[in-house]
Structure formats: structure tokens, C-alpha cells
Amino acid sequence: MTGEFDIIAKYFAPLSVDCKGAFNLGDDAASLSVPDVVVTKDLLVEGVHFRAKDARSAVAKKALRVNLSDIAAKGARSIGYFLGCVWPSGVKEEAIADFAAGLGEDQELFKIALMGGDTTAHVAKGAPFTVSITMIGTTGSAGMIRRTGAAPGDDVYVSGTIGDAGLGLAALNAEMKFPAAHKAYLTGRYQLPSPRVFLGGALGGHASSSIDVSDGLIADAGHIADQSNVALDIFAEKIPLSEAALAFVKKQDDQNAAIAQLAGYGDDYEILFTAPASRRRSIEMAAQVTKTPVARIGTAVKGKGVRLLDAEDAEIAVDRAGYDHFAA
Amino acid sequence: MTGEFDIIAKYFAPLSVDCKGAFNLGDDAASLSVPDVVVTKDLLVEGVHFRAKDARSAVAKKALRVNLSDIAAKGARSIGYFLGCVWPSGVKEEAIADFAAGLGEDQELFKIALMGGDTTAHVAKGAPFTVSITMIGTTGSAGMIRRTGAAPGDDVYVSGTIGDAGLGLAALNAEMKFPAAHKAYLTGRYQLPSPRVFLGGALGGHASSSIDVSDGLIADAGHIADQSNVALDIFAEKIPLSEAALAFVKKQDDQNAAIAQLAGYGDDYEILFTAPASRRRSIEMAAQVTKTPVARIGTAVKGKGVRLLDAEDAEIAVDRAGYDHFAA
What is the ipTM of this complex? Predict the structure, then answer.
């Protein structure tokens, strides 16, 4: 293994060439001139957010994408990021090279650059690989879309399909079985989310509130409901499902319960948002122009909390807890 | 232990009240309007950058201060930060409360606010507490002071005193013994650095290059030399030493070697900078106005690398390695 400065020069400095103010990672700080900055920061920890055996390039991409998703859900465009890594003690150079290769591929895809950061290594044997990303974005003139703007009468939308990543994780952990093609699709959704960067950029000025689905559809709808002081009614049969998730639902005795289970899973990285009914045409256009599937799944009403409703408008029981890092 | 959202609401949201764009930590991202942004990011890991038994409030302050120091060394003023924490599995609420109290005290002292972040916990038992800070600063019209501007003929300066933190760490690890008063002073310098935030803000437009001393005086001088394409000659007898460090040096057989040892220690968090000889009066004024001790310790010359020179201008051998997180 070469030294810390060599590693930075060899693997990370090349990732910063598109950010002039990163000074080739040769200084203590980066100098940025960004109008209307939006900043988010997410940590990923081995054993919590990804598995020890996941390829380091896949971890790199997941780390970038969960942050890209946050910025997109705010109606902003990501321009670059700061990276903090704590490598396991005795990490092999190939692991670092693979991680940097993953970053490079996604930088190309999402038009972002490395702006700075910090690379260190654990002393404790077996301590988990940890990645911290601070993503910098910029909003258009419409400003950041918050969680607070939903009003009674607004429509509730979600992009893509819901529950795939949770099923994929269950497949990876051998807790569920799927046909090979479905398993490949579902595990892919868990390991490599596709942040809705184009749709996000098109929602500014139209969406009244927005969040990315990371805790789970119901839990994240709950965040919007809480922050906007409204209740959200979500219609189970309107929740968009992939072919693989639909096949899973059809096999269950209680299909409503199965949908509730999918709506409780996290890691979808779709965008859940609300917009006034008067904006339906604009939302359709935004979906069309950005080639992003968007489904209208519910409505905001006066009240508190989130209700998942069946075809007869009866409430379906949901497990609201979501994942809590501090649960006993 | 209460849940993740309760912890954020109870301990961290109150730290964000002075940053309007942090939305009380109730959104996915923060919205900032900062001219001439300077950003730095540093990770601290238990067992690497601090000890398992250090008070969490002290860890909080150290994490903020090493980042405040980076921003100050760039001639900028810190305004706020993003925080990422990975708590040990089974962390007690008192530890989180103590950590948040430490952040609060230093926010008050340094006039900064929490802007956002991410709080999570290890699943693996015994995995080390990890803190990631992304500090946001702003420069005056003079812009960011880089590592690249030193020119032959420039003076080399350093603030405060050098080597105290390294001696303090040795005392904490019982590798060295000191009289009680000296030990208290030295360990304090290690555990609670005092970033030179006022001096840093006064150096813009005067210093030609600047860095904070974290890797060690010689190693960090080396970064300036490399990036500025000059050599730095540093005069051992000019290096400012505290009373405690001076007492240590006087006890050694080879006093030049002892000074070289101090100049190799890290964690001083002083500012090392260069300025043209024509700016001597300005530098004196900056030191005076900001009540910061500043010593002129060397000169930049044509060439490469750093030489530590004795009173007869003979080179003193130094261990240049510094700490390398990836050394075998």
C-alpha cells in the first residue's frame, strides 16, 4: 500500500479536475462560487447501509446517489461533492481503486465533480468502512422545494415504483425467493438506486412539497404531513409497482397487507411530492419531458398523519416505525 | 434511549436555530446564500483522532475546531457546519447529550450554527464513534489564501507555539512525564486546540500562502513548499515554544534534535504562513490587532523541500514522514 498523499494524488485528485476551486485537492479547503446553494450530507456505514461484501465501486455509487436523490427531491441540481472515507485497517489498494472507479463512472453520468474531503483509516481491526458525502447543489430561480408546502386539496405523486429495494434486500439476505430475472432486477434496485435527477430539476415552481423516499413511502409521506400540517391519504391500488413487486403481491393471501409492506420498505430513492390540482398538466409535462414515470397516488386533506386506503376507502394497517438507528 | 427523530429534535435541532436555511433540521437539505464560499471537511475517528475515554463534549469541540482551523488558515470566516455522526452500537443518551452540549458551547464561542447533517449508529458491536464535519466559511474580498503563493524571499511565520499537542498526547499515553502544571497545559493543547480564527481573518491580502499545522510544522511547511514550488528554510531557534516545551527541550542531550522532534509533531492547529518582506509591518499589525502571538521563523528560497537549520545554518535531521493513515 502506498501512502495517504499518494492515494489522494493517484485516485482522488483526478476526480476533481472539473472543479477549478478544488485546486486538484492540493489545499485545505475548496473555494466555490455557487448561487442559491443547497447542501445535504449523508453517511453510509458498512453493515448498516451496505453489506461488507458489496463491491466498493457499488458502495461509491450508492453513496453518491442517495445524496443526488436528496438534492433532486429539493428541486435542485447537484454540481459536486465533498467525500470523507474511513477505510478499514489494512485496506488493500485495489479496494480504493475500485471505489474511485465507481465515483468516476457516476461523476460522468451525473455531471458532478469531487470538490474536496478527507481520507483516513481505522486503527481498530474490523471496524467498518464508512463513507460520508456532502453534496452541493444549486436551485433555479424557483428556489428549494421544501417539505412544508403541501395544502389540503393537493395531489400526491410518486415517481417510479415502490418497494423494489426492500424486496431486493430481502432477496440478498435470502429471506425471500424470487425468479432469477426478478431477483436480478430487485437486488439491482437496492444496490444501485437511480436518483430522479431530471424530474427533480423540473419540479421547481410546480411541486408544493417534496421528499425522496428513503425511509419508506409511508414514513416519508409522514414527514411531509408533519411538516406541512396536513394529512395525506394514499390509495393502495394507485401505488406504482414493478412487474417483480406485483408478482410478489399477487402471491400473498392479503394483497393489501403486501402493498402496505412494500410502502413500508425504504431505499426506493423515488421522489414523493405534492402539487395543487391546478398543476396536473405541468406535472404531466415534467414527467414527459424528463422521461420519468410519475403516478398520482393520493391527496392531501385537513388533519394529521398518513392513511393508506384500500379500494373501498377503508384504512389498511401499516407499520409506521421504519428503520430507527437508535431503537433499542 | 429515545428514537432517531427524537434525538435530532431534542439535541441537534436547537443548535440550528441561528441558520434560517437549516429549517430547524426538518428538511432533506439546507438552503444557503453565502458569497465566496470556502468549504472544508474533516473526519475524526475514535482510536485514531481521539481516545475512547475522551469526554464526548471534548470530542465535539475538537471536531469543530480542527475544521475552524482549516477555514481560518485560508483567510476565511466560518459561518456554520454540517455534522455527520456514526455512534457506537448501544450508545447512551447521556453521551449524545454531552456531545451536543460541547457543540453548543463552541457554537457560541465561534459564532457558528449547525446547518444540517446525518445521525446514524453502528450495528457492529464496538465499532468506533466517528464524526464528520463539513465547515462552511466565507472569504472577504481578498479571496482564499492558498498553499501556492509563496515566493523566494518571502518570510515564513507561525502563530502560537509548536509541539505542545504532541507532548500532550505523549503525556496522556504515559510515554513521557511532565510536572503537573506542564502536563495540564500540554494535554489541554492536545485535547482542545484553539483555532486561530481571528488571525486567519486578518491575513487576507497580506499572506502569500497559508496552511494550518495539523500534520506537523515540518510536514505542513513541506506542503507549502511543494505547492508553491519553493524551498522553505526554517531556523530551529526561532520556532516558538511554550514554557512546558522549552523545559522539555532543555532536558534533552541534543537540543536541536528535540526541537526537530517538536516540529515533527502534529495537532498544533497554529497557522503557518508566508508573506513578502514588504508586508512585515502588516503582519505585525494583524498579530497585534488580533492579539495573536506570531513568530517569524524562516524564509522561502529557490529550490525544493524544507530545511530545519541550527544557529550555524547547518541542517538538522528531521523525520519527515508525519502520520500516515495508510502506512503499512
Answer: 0.87
